[in-house]
Amino acid sequence: MIILGLETSCDETSAAVLQNGKVLSNVVSSQCCHTGFGGVVPELASREHERLIVAITDAALGEANITKNDLDLIAATAGPGLIGAVMVGLSFAQSMAWALRIPFVPVNHIEAHMFSPFIEAGATKGVPEEPFISLTVSGGHTLLSIIGTDLSRRIIGRTLDDAAGEAFDKTGKMLGLSYPAGPEIDQLAKQGNPSFHRFPRALTAQSQTSKSYQGNYDFSFSGLKTSVLTWLQKQSPAYIRHHKTDIAASIQDAIVSVLTEKTVAAALRHQINSVAIAGGVSANSALRAAMEKECSRHGIRLHLPGPVYSTDNAAMIAALAELKISRGMRPERQYGTAPFAGMPS
Ligand code: KG4
Ligand code: ZN
Q1: Which of 43, 174, 219, 275 has the fewest Cβ atoms surrounding its Cβ within 10 A?
Q2: Which atom of ligand 1 is nearest to the CA of 164?
Q3: Whose CA is nearest to atom 20 of ligand 1?
Q4: CATH code for 126-304?
Q5: Which segments of the chain belong to CATH 3.30.420.40?
Q6: Cα of 65 from ligand 1 centre, angstroms
Q7: Ligand 1: which of 82, 136, 168 to mutate, most ligand atoms within 8 Å of CB?
Q8: Residues 92-105 pLDDT 10s
Q9: What is the pLDDT of residues 118-142, one digit of tens each?
Q10: How far is the CA of 263 from the centre of ligand 1 (A)?
């Protein structure tokens, strides 16, 4: 089966071709039109997707060495995401499927992230034959879930305010970094001291005088944001410049330690031996290192996506469509944006 996947939920225009679980191409174009705005401008994102979608799709087909007539199915992100951005990929995918008389499958973007650690092992073959804990950390979501062997999802924790990626991006902005600040904080932190300043770790056992937060898998990053802001306001610009790498490392440490502590605690408490980390923040080198260390200490198997599959990409969209179809399931429609348009034969 040859699947074309399309992803346009935020500021990456991406198309990928998968053949029987193997990625033949995965073309990702990151939009730069938002530079200077401090975040993604929804209208600009939609227009940029519209400008690029045909060229990116052609590039993915070309790189896979196939034509559109070789396709058996088209899958596209149907949400969550910026509504205008989602609609560009979704309507393009549905029209193309209709014109080619092949099925169209809508895919949930976050669920696609959850299964992205298994793409390299072959979309349908890599998924563990045991339940696993999924930590999904992106610019808009922070979720801790238990994924069953039937691919069912039970969310056991989520952020009460900002997502982990947002915490990187917003505190990075305070440090004068451009959007998205996560990758730059990651780089700066490599030369910094994570113990330079202790920023708060909310909703953890260490953050409370009692043990009442043990077994609480929710997250909160808004206090960290306020704490970074008020702390920076008390420092001189020269001091901040001089200690930029230390501050970046300290912010990163606050985020990474909470994510690691809660994920490993959830695995131990639920006696689950596999953990998979996904979403843009899973590209973070300190998070990967901390998870590797803690999981190996507790004998937990850790599944990490290759860096290209951490951030938004269309291979994960095609891979989830293939995984669900191989299990006889119909991928979910979400947020009402995706009329299921399986074409009649
Ligand atoms: O999954 P993603 O590409 O898009 C969404 O679905 O949101 O995630 C984007 C987020 C941004 O907040 C970005 O700063 C963060 O992932 N990110 C990182 C790193 N690479 C991307 N955060 C920390 N370290 C990184 N290396
Ligand atoms: Zn994403």
Answers
A1: 43
A2: 12
A3: 183
A4: 3.30.420.40
A5: 2-114+310-326, 126-304
A6: 30
A7: 168
A8: 999 999 999 999 99
A9: 998 776 678 888 999 999 999 999 9
A10: 18
User: Angle at the Cα of 228 (from 222 to 234), degrees rounded to 5?
Assistant: 140
Q: Strand 104-107's sheet: what is its strand order? A: 22-30, 12-19, 2-7, 73-77, 104-107
Question: How is residue 154 written in tokens?
Answer: 């039970």
Q: Which residues does the chain have with pLDDT short of 50? A: 209-210, 333-345
pLDDT tens for 50-81 read 999 999 999 999 999 999 999 999 999 999 99
- pLDDT tens-digit map of 260-281: 999 999 999 999 999 999 999 9
Query: Does the CB atom of residue 183 touch ligand 1 within 6 A?
Result: yes
Judge if pTM exceeds 0.90: yes
Helices (H) then strands (E): counts for the chain = 11, 10
- 301-303 and 142-147 beta bridge pairing: unpaired
Angle (CA) 83 152 319, round 5°: 60
Of the ligands numbered here, which is closest to the C-alpha atom of 288? Answer: 1
Q: 242 C-alpha to center of ligand 1: Å?
A: 26
Report DSSP letters for 179-239, one per residue. SS-HHHHHHHHTTS-TTSS----TTSGGGSSSSTTTT---B--HHHHHHHHHHHHTS-HHH
CA–CA dist 332, 338 (Å, integer)? 9
Q: Maximum distance among all alpha carbons in the chain?
A: 68
How far apart are the CA of 140 and the centre of ligand 1, in A? Answer: 9
The C-alpha angle with vertex 306 and arms to 40 and 127, in degrees rounded to 5, equals: 110
116, 138 in Cβ contact below 8 A? no
Name which residue sits closest to atom 22 of ligand 1, judged by CA.
182
Q: Cα(308) to centroid of ligand 2, in Å?
A: 12
Please give the distance, rounded to the nearest whole angstrom, from the Cα atom of residue 240 to the centre of ligand 2: 31
Contact 115, 319 (CB under 8 A): yes
At 339 the pLDDT is 39
Residue whose token pair is 């909310």: 202
Q: What's the CATH class of domain 2-114+310-326?
A: alpha beta
